[in-house]
From TrEMBL, chains A, B:
<dbReference type="GO" id="GO:0047372">
    <property type="term" value="F:monoacylglycerol lipase activity"/>
</dbReference>
<dbReference type="GO" id="GO:0046464">
    <property type="term" value="P:acylglycerol catabolic process"/>
</dbReference>
<dbReference type="InterPro" id="IPR050266">
    <property type="entry name" value="AB_hydrolase_sf"/>
</dbReference>
<dbReference type="Pfam" id="PF00561">
    <property type="entry name" value="Abhydrolase_1"/>
</dbReference>
<dbReference type="GO" id="GO:0016020">
    <property type="term" value="C:membrane"/>
</dbReference>
<protein>
    <submittedName>
        <fullName>Alpha/beta fold hydrolase</fullName>
    </submittedName>
</protein>
<dbReference type="InterPro" id="IPR029058">
    <property type="entry name" value="AB_hydrolase_fold"/>
</dbReference>
<feature type="domain" description="AB hydrolase-1">
    <location>
        <begin position="38"/>
        <end position="264"/>
    </location>
</feature>
<dbReference type="InterPro" id="IPR000073">
    <property type="entry name" value="AB_hydrolase_1"/>
</dbReference>
<keyword id="KW-0378">Hydrolase</keyword>
Amino acid sequence: MTTHHTAPTQFVEAAGVNFAYRRFGNPEGVPLVMNMHFTGTMDHWDPLVTDGLAKGREVILFNNAGISTTSGEVPTTIEGMAANAVAFVKALGLSKVDVLGFSLGGLVAQEMALAAPDLVRKLILVGTGPRSGEAMETLTPEALAVFGGTYEHPDDLWLGVFFTPTDRSQAAGREFLKRFRLRTEGRDHEVSEKVAPAQIEALGKWGAPRENPHAYLKSINQPTLVVNGGNDVIIYTVNSFILQQNLPNAQLILYPDSSHGSQYQYPELFVSDVSTFLDKNHF
Amino acid sequence: MTTHHTAPTQFVEAAGVNFAYRRFGNPEGVPLVMNMHFTGTMDHWDPLVTDGLAKGREVILFNNAGISTTSGEVPTTIEGMAANAVAFVKALGLSKVDVLGFSLGGLVAQEMALAAPDLVRKLILVGTGPRSGEAMETLTPEALAVFGGTYEHPDDLWLGVFFTPTDRSQAAGREFLKRFRLRTEGRDHEVSEKVAPAQIEALGKWGAPRENPHAYLKSINQPTLVVNGGNDVIIYTVNSFILQQNLPNAQLILYPDSSHGSQYQYPELFVSDVSTFLDKNHF
């Protein structure tokens, strides 16, 4: 069985796009499709998280259209990204999957559930928020400062994005930075300079104010697990609370002293919580 | 080994009060002391929850001063109730316990951690809120309606207190009502008519507006698990969010489609979440 570090990058054609993906883990059960964050590639996932989840199911990582090794253009709407993701999943011949989305990927995951409700069994929304969420039309002041900063080592950017300033969170962050460089063979190349502007445009449309912004959440009936850090400065934590309050069938978990990357700060706890949610049908 | 249904009621003297308690479960590890809600006795706990938690530790139920089989008067402050609870725990000869509090009991649990920080290892706050929490100075309109209602069977009151109006929540509620009547020998008698006024007075003082109402939470450094239903109408759910946001080291879990008694709606999930929190040291 291959792992996060050894799974080869494969390709599948759908919607005119050549999708790069990796697939590994326990072939029993419902596969889990993971949607990545702003400017991220398959190599930005934490192997402790992906391999941990892969013990109980197949984990499918992929680059959406226009990202790194996948062909095509990044759509300027979340709905467009979701349409591509749904086409990708169907091209794999899958008729039922669980869907996890992190940050921008969490917006895509919501739109996947709306666009293809029969395809999605359960939903996991990590470090993300609803349409017209608080401070989601533009990057938050904290995000602008972090993304605009200069760093001794380029990876250090992620310490400010994903972790709080406390000693224990930063220490967990440095462990994460080691882990996400452990795959040495067949890594994705970084995304082109065209990716960030398109994704920011899509985020802006999603986050723009509108009437009854959260009404759409009543149409997402899948059992949903909403997870975030208690102090997320990239997509404010209150947005996770709003998701739980408006989704008909959602559990919320907020972890202590953690920011946007809480699942990388508490990888074992996160894997335990997500596995319980996926394996049991408590709701 | 005795269980929720077979553990005898025992007595211990402390602070001039003769405390009734029951103690059962795995003698290894740190005992868990459970603080009951408004007008409740030891018999109001869910045996699926108490016996589930007792697999990994001793569970200690007790009636605080003036409640049912325990002598004395109900204090008109939460701090007074906490002082009695601390005296009770020390009278058992225990120097380190985990403390769970539900609703009113969650206020007592917070004050126990403040009054005796070395006595309390970890804290579990269920269906509760902070000092000066939202709508915590008086009963909420929903609580007034439920407690003022008339019921075919007296136990039906709890369907409105603990569960949402949905079919699945009410069905879970009816199962709970069966379970909490299963202990037949040595049940507590109902509380006297003096209990509710004293507890309401204490709740009013706790909930009253004050300056910097949540600053005290920074002094509760114990690892804390905050749990509630996503739609608690007795102590509004947002109060659990406020607790998590202000406690230095707290995880929040909100369960879907559930009200004040979410732990009785999802007893197995609750036992699993609490056991993970108590057994592991993820934070």
